[in-house]
Amino acid sequence: MPMHTWVIAVPVALALLGLSLLAWIVVHGRGPRDPALDEAEREDEDSAPAQSAGAPAWLSEEAAAYRAACADALQRLQAIAFESDLSDERAAPPGRQSLERTVRTRLAQIAEQPNYAPRRPMLLPKLIQAMRDDDVSRRELASIISTDPVLAGNLVRLANSPVYRRDAAIESVDRAVAVLGTEGMRSLATAALLQPVFRITGRHFVRFGEITWQHTFLSASAAESHAAVIENSDPFAAQLLGLIMGLATIVVFRVASDAYQERRYVPVAGKIAGLIDAEVVPVARQIAASWELSERMDVALADQSAAPAAAPSSLGRSLQFGRFAAALAMLRARALIDDEAVQAALATGGAEADAFTRIWARLAATPS
After folding, report:
1. CB neighbour class for 284 (10 Å; exposed up to 12, middle 13-18, buried from 19)
2. Could you say which of 213, 347, 359, 360 has the lowest number of CB atoms within 10 Å?
């Protein structure tokens, strides 16, 4: 072959070889990589937000507006509990994704971890049975409650809150039973049994337990009222669900806080709040299952997820409203919203807005 032909052929062959190699890389991958880079990429993918699948068919514009108002009120309440605006975007320490995976792994098996999972109070089934028995006298009911001094003290204290108090101050369990009646006592005794779980210790976010308890107590009361007045369903079940959602919030907070402490990281409010948003419903459902609660109560908890597959059930609607109204009451008590903003938020309830307002007004009278 003449020399000038070689001069032309060699570059052409090299170019074709390069194009072939490029095509192979595109089809088969990028070749060997550092495993650490692959792991980092997977962590980035894990932490990336999921693509929106669009609004479900059952979600009307009115329902979407109501859900948005609920979410906004609860988010603003979180800022109070953490005493932070939750917009802290400072660089997370190395291993944050590993920390969050650890938290999620623990939460996925929370019912098997007695140091975190709140067990059903031993006295609760006995109390419920006594309250459903027409032959049990008020004195006998008071005697059962008085066997637990902490429960008795909590019950009397809660009975004097504006949510339950009728006229004069209640100074004893006997008086509480006489004034509140069986239904009132059943709800109040359950709240009093569970209140100690909300005590938080530590150097960070010291008011979280207190604020979460206040919201839980009010949301349980509002859910109970909603079930009785609007849904004509089971008020006690709605009240218990409100308490369980609060318990789940505390569980996620504690697991996340402990994970930060184990690694000696300073807890980041926004990150823990995000974990609560993502995990509170699954954890609440685990608690409900470990307490052997009914399937309809599990469905009501599932209704509280960010993207439920179907329109909420009757109990689910009561629970949703209870959390919403309680958050509004706490925001209003701190002058973070005014009456006009409250009415605008409640108006998203559509035809039920007037009933919403009446229930909310009772909550608003409760110091928080």
Report:
1. buried
2. 347
Smallest Cα–Cα separation from 82: which of 243, 248, 247, 202?
202
pLDDT value at 12 more than 70: no
- Reduced to 3 states (helix: H, G, I; strand: E, B; else coil), residue 276 is helix
Highest CATH level, class, for 60-119+205-364: mainly alpha
Written in H, E and C, the secondary structure of 10-68 is: HHHHHHHHHHHHHHHHHHHCCCCCCHHHHHHHHHHHHHCCCCCCCCCCCCCHHHHHHHH
CB of 291 closer than 8 Å to CB of 247: no
Q: Look-up: residue for tokens 């660089």?
A: 91
Q: What is the mean pLDDT of residues 74-91?
A: 82
Sketch the domain layout of the chain as residue ranges: 60-119+205-364, 122-198
Task: Please give the structure tokens belonging to residue 51.
Answer: 């693509």
- 32, amino acid identity: P
pLDDT digits (tens, 9 = 90+) for 189-239: 777 777 777 787 778 898 999 999 999 989 998 999 999 999 988 888 898
Rounded to an integer, what distance in angstroms lies between the CA atom of residue 341 and that of residue 241? 27
Q: Which amino acid is at 140?
A: E
The rounded Cα 183 to chain-centroid distance in angstroms is 26
> Span 13-21, mean pLDDT?
42
Which pLDDT tens digit goes with each residue over 53-78? 556 776 788 888 999 999 999 999 99
pLDDT greater than 90 at residue 51: no
Q: Residue 304: helix, strand or coil by DSSP?
A: coil
